[in-house]
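Pilot study result, target chain (447 residues):
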Amino acid sequence: MLSDEVSPDPGALFSAFHLTGRNSVIAAVSGGGDSLALLFLLHDYLQRLPDAPSLIAVTIDHALRSESAAESAAVGRMAAAAGIPHRVLRWEGPKPATGVPAAARQARLSLLARAAEGAGTDLVLTGHTADDQAETLAMRLERGEGRGAAGMAPATLYDGRIWFARPLLEVRREALRVFLRARGISWMDDPTNRDTRFERARKRQEIDEDSIARLVNKARDTAQAREDAGRKAAALIGEAVLRPAPGLLRLRLAEFRGAEQEVAVYALRILLAVAGGTPHLPDLARARGILDQADGDGFRTSLSRAVIATKSGYLFLHRETRNLPEVPLTDAFVWDGRYRMNVHSQQEDLVVAAFGSENAREHEISDIDAPRGLVRSALAAEPAIWRDRHCVGLATECGLGEARPVAGLWAQLLPCFDLAAAHAIAQLLAGEPPPASPWRGHKGTVR
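Predicted structure:
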């Protein structure tokens, strides 16, 4: 579907999505050609459905240029002319001196998620194209090969609750302009897209037509390989890993050693990130070295904030007790990359902090199939509720808030490439499983 001469078919773009039965769907519209084409193509498609959700256009005003407010208003007028409700959300507050694109992207995700929740939906569609995919991959490949070479995912779960889907990833930017010109719709060009101070703008000017096709194909192939690796790692985790106590993971070394090496190393990297609460996978070579060296009782090391120890043919993982955060329990947040905290009642004097070694030594433990010393070490790093430096109890037990285990690796952004592995981890931790993706008939495994 990479032709830039044929206007896209709305049915081909959106029929795979489960839209009927949803109350509403959000289209993120900046006023550029890509997002306007998304809006009107989606509008055309929804008019054909007998039980279509309401379509809401949302524009994020980043307030980075003096023209942004007027441009947002212009989008509103175009949407109104087509009978489409439109909202503008503004990125308030001071802007960073450096890292503006990344900060703006984070603000945009947060604001769009807020708009989706307000509209009673879990689905936001964005206008990223094949050209955007090629630019993204060109930037990532300069930093090296790896999982990032899968490019942007067709859908990404934000904050465990809102799907951001990209239905135009196989469509060329010029094909969307063919559609807009045929409809007599004009669009706005953001000058930052040509500002070579920004990496994406530089890449946009560097890559040619042949490079776009090559990069999009590479992203597609790498994404498939990443999904396959995730499924295999998920199967190994399901077969060979248990959580015998809060914060403690137990891996059967024989099954990891008997598995395909790359699968075993990938599964171990996921588990280390989960145990340590880190947002990134640990170093590949060091993780491989752990599997090579972990033999017999007494092996002990650490990686990615996780302690690794062997005992009786098992590899045990738990969080280090260093650098654990203390956070006021005043709002929902992710604690230490391992627990999603929700407040049951507003009490300003409560703090979430580690349970601590002294409390862990005194805590009653029984019927746990794991060495008691490791159980208590893991327990010491678990979240507890504190008031005036006094421990009220473990956050999972005291009833003052809700603490649900999460994988920091995917707590904020879960690409659909990694759904199988994320489901395996949710089952292992007895946490909240990711919601089914927005594709029709899709129940949670990678399509």
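One observation from the pilot: The radius of gyration is 24 Å. A full batch analysis is planned for the follow-on phase.
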